[in-house]
Amino acid sequence: MEDRLREMAEAARTALREAASLDELDQARARYLGRSGVLRDIQQGIRDLAKELRPQVGQLINQTRAELERILEERRQELEAGQAHLRVARDSIDVTLPGRSQPVAGRHPLLATLDDMLEIFLGLGYTIAEGPEVEDNYYGFEALNYPPDHPAMDEQMTFYIADDVLLRSQTSPVQIRVMETQEPPVRVVVPGRCFRRDTVDATHSHTFHQLEGLCVDEGVTFADLKGTLLAFARGMFGPEARVRFRPDFFPFTEPSAEFAVSCFACAGEGCRVCQGSGWMELGGAGMVDPNVLAGVGYDTERYTGFAFGVGIERFAMNRYGIPDMRLLYSGDMRMLRQF
Ligand code: PHE
After folding, report:
1. Count of domains in the chain?
2. Within-domain flag for 102
3. Which mutation among 150, 170, 171, 249 tests ligand 1's pocket best, with the greatest number of atoms within 8 A of CB?
4. In terms of residue numbers, what domain contains 202?
5. Contact, 282 vs 260, CB < 8 A?
6. What are phi and psi of 337, to 5 degrees?
7. Does a structural domain hold residue 164?
């Protein structure tokens, strides 16, 4: 019996000392020191011993239990310290580590251009208005003084969703919506997406962006239009910028003009950016046709107004030297990261 006790004690010491985790330690404790453990089993064998041997063996068993319990406690402390160490390592923040870098979004060149444009007009006292991208024939064309057979209304140029439902081909319909809800004076700029059945290439897209401007008040003249667009050009390109107006035609303005700004890259000398012309065409403009004003119920004897529309894509491409319009819609990070 004493041999058995000695063997068991040896095995128990090893198991307790070498327990690799608190779980393993607890298993070893149960096996050797537990209620139905080996030590208890041996202890029960005392009954079979001769009476005079019992006290001696009992004492031996108690010593062994005390020794094993000490080892158990030592090992438990070691393991707990180790775990605490691990926990500290896991939970603490190492302030000396470099931070995890967050991906930084940049402004899309189209949006950056638009923001700069809006900034200038806000400074001139304009407010921003918006309108739907899906329009009907009335807002899309009729209220803008298009004759019923105008080619812009043709399915070859405009996307139709249904007979009388179309994707706006310009931001001008918003002129009507603004004037319907507001009496003069009106000073709004309208950024927005437009759609035309253009074949996609380096300078065309079926979806593009415009900034519309509308100013209606008493005594508004073409000189105000020129002054406004000159202020816009100078705001965008600096005090040396000049603007050029050439006769054009739009159903909703009379007279109408196309306007251009002196090339920002060569100041009008002629270069690659402006294809040698010295000018960059920005858009269309004109005095709001009295038919349009009358259509929204404005007193055409009292009020006059001007309107203009600027294409944002070409502007952004010239400004940032982007050679192909498709890059603007690609979402290609190699391109976008440059801005
Ligand atoms: N809507 C015209 C276009 O898309 C531009 C324009 C706007 C012209 C306002 C005159 C007045 O070409």
Report:
1. 2
2. no
3. 170
4. 109-336
5. yes
6. -65, -20
7. yes
